[in-house]
What does this fold into?
Amino acid sequence: MAVTIDKRRNQARAGLPHEIMADGRIGAEDVLRLRRAIYGDGGIDREKAAWLFQLNRDRKGHDPAWSEFYVEALTDFF
It folds into this structure.
């Protein structure tokens, strides 16, 4: 069964930075903003995890800090 994610709605509800979706690359500064957004209010939930999956799938090119954060955040979720 396929799951459709409404990117804008999911992003807005998760309170994650909008700028990350704009430039197509996740840099070290983006990772810091994501870390603050996800862990600043207590941790990662299903919506935030779905958005991280979407970011990883849609962005072209990532800073090495992204890979470390991605694994850490999803490990915390699961």
Q: What stands out?
A: The CA atoms of residues 30 and 62 lie 10 Å apart. The mean pLDDT is 79. The two ends are 20 Å apart (CA to CA). DSSP finds four helices and no strands in the chain.
